[in-house]
Amino acid sequence: MESAQNLKIGLAALKQKDYAAAIAPLEAVSQTGDPASRLKAQMGLVKAYARTQQIQQAIDLCYGLAQHPNPQVQTWATDTATELQRRAPTSPAASSNLDETGFTPLNPESLTVQGRRNRETVGQREKVSSPKTNLQKPKREQSRVKQPLEPSHNPPQTIDQSSHAAQPLHPNPPDLAPAPRSTPDPHTLVRRAGRAQPVGLGTVDRSTFWALQAGTVIFLIWLLTLLLDRVQNLLNLVIAKLVWRIVPSFSLLLFKPLLPVLLLLIALYFASPWLLDGTLKRVYRLRDFSFLELERRSAEAGQILKRTEGQQQFQPKLKFLPIAAPILFTYGSLPRNTRIVVSQGLLDRLQEDEIAALYAAEVAHVQQWTVGILSLVSLLAQLPFWVYWQVAAWGDRQSNAFLQGIAIFVSAVGYGLYWLLRLPGLALARVRLYFSDRLATELTGNPNGMVRALLRVMMGIAETVQQQGSTSPLLESFDLLMPVGYQQAVSLGSTYVQTANANLFEWDRRSPYRAWLSLLNDHPPLGDRFHWLTQYARQWHIEPELPWNQSNQRLAPQKFPISQRFWLQAAPWVGLAIGLLLAILLWLVGWVAMKAGSLEIDWLWGDRSVLGGLGLLGLGIGLFIRINAFYPDIKRTMLKENLSLEALLTAPDALPIDNKPVRWRGKLLGRKGIRNRCHQDLFLQTSTGTIRLHYTSQLGCIGDVLFQVLRPEAFLTPQNNTVTVTGWFRRGATSWIEVETIQPPRGTTARSEHPVWSTILALLLSLAGAFLIWTGGS
């Protein structure tokens, strides 16, 4: 009754051209009314949104209506969306004439007769386009949130290998062609494939996942203990060398760091929700997000949270960030005090089922108890990141060279500590996303919705970086908790917007080297996640979102090719491993000599200088071996300019050592001033996508920190930011260009000396290893 009344009020407001007043009652009907009322309300909302300049919301509704079984509704939605897309950039005056120029209202009452005429045709078409499945309605106990949480590391065994063999897979939705435009609308780059009833995907072994969580905690304790011990030793050295000359009675710092570290971690673990609340409120204007606001955006997400509260006896607090970047993450210590944070950018870009899929994944993180561990790691990393960010900003305001030097040094140390403190959480952050994708699929029955959500987030992050001209500090400092990493999103997202080519993710799912090349990444390869979500869709006999052939399976781990390219790529780490192995063998020889009473060589047993010296020596020799292959000469006569980034990203078996000398012209992006002193945020935006730049000054990292040399950040001005970059393209878990030169339209060219400094580093490591062995570490 209430829905009928709201519908009557909304339609009356439309007739009176009071479009703003029509929106609220029609939105209520579109979420809670019966199917016929929802259709009328949604069609009315399209017009109300369009007339109130909410063009994107109107287009989003058209995408949903384009999936309606009635062909007349489909045609109307397609025509309307096309017209809205064409007129979206125009002035308000132009949009006021939508009715006269293509925005033709469709009377919902006329659909009844036409729907009866087409019912049989529609039913036949659905049988062709969606193969009949043997899915059963889930049993009552299956619908509870007690499904296995972990993803299977083997392809599902129940997949029908032939159910989709005869179906064409279109890269773009055949029922809603995008309007012509210079840059494709991200909403036209998804196919909106279907979904299934939520059922289980089978059980998987969770023991390794729990072991990884325990290992993360142990690694974190060990790292903090080691850092605190080194700080104590450094302070004692300062006391012994300097302070004692002034205050001879000053005491050395003598304490075991393990207990203070344990107490600190326990305190921070339980305080993390409120400490992170304070950080986000102060810096990013975090506010509460009501449950009703969420239901207005995604009723399905609200239902998932309600079901979670009823079955698991907890409901996360909802938070909101008024920023353009599409992000969603969860933090807290215990399930009852977790917070799920969503941004305005994500709500604007994603549709209802896609928002629900991401919220389901965040619920999975809470249920798997990974939120507390990664919240603790993120909190620990926030302090040095804040030091880096604030001290660098302070240094930019100083005119005194000495004060600027202090700011540069302190901010560089802070940024280095930030990356160091993230290390314990990297593996858990990667692996947990496979598990959350799986559980979210079981909760929603919508693996395709998760694929679309990740695609939109990826494209949205890339667009945000391009629009803002640099990476937001929020995207970087909270990267461990995000559903998509900003570094992997920039190149893939900016290129996918141009091409809508699913082959961009072939390296991610087929490269036999992807696992070990991702070891220092906090997110798994996106294509690998898409692969498993595609497998879940096929297991449920629904057409996958991404048009991958079933025969084009990802490479199995046992097919890892050991080639000359691989040995060259891994040469430094192989050298390190060989050095450590030799040291262990010498230890064994020393132990045998000690047992035999041979005093000449028993000193080898337990000698740490042998272990450290041979390890450094092996690492240095490995770098020497790789340098020539890693940095071949760039011949200007054979250099190809402005290659397609799409072509470089799609090679499924590429390694970083498969360098391709390139020259690209584009717009330089990145942070300005001391915040980018080490060139940590440097990108080149080209006509085919955005790529990260790896640059070091001619004086190396020492020059970056200590000396006033020419830096590419000097080109980050509107008059000078169109540059030509020459260097070596690398394809790994993320892609980048190893820079040789950056040439502005006018002025001096910035040169990067990677080959020189790689040689110097290899030499220093080798000499340090030899010196350590020769002196015995004394």
Structure description:
- This protein has about 775 residues and is of the alpha+beta class.
- Helices cover about 55% and strands about 10% of the residues.
- Helix 10 (about 290-295) crosses helix 11 and helix 14 (about 370-395) packs antiparallel against helix 15.
Query: What portion of residues belong to β-strands?
Result: 5-15%
Question: What does the overall shape look like?
Answer: globular
Largest sheet: 5 strands, mixed, barrel
Helix content: 40-55%
Q: What's the alpha carbon Rg, rounded to whole Å?
A: 29 Å
Q: Mean pLDDT, rounded to whole units?
A: 80
Contiguous low-pLDDT stretches (5 residues minimum) are 89-185
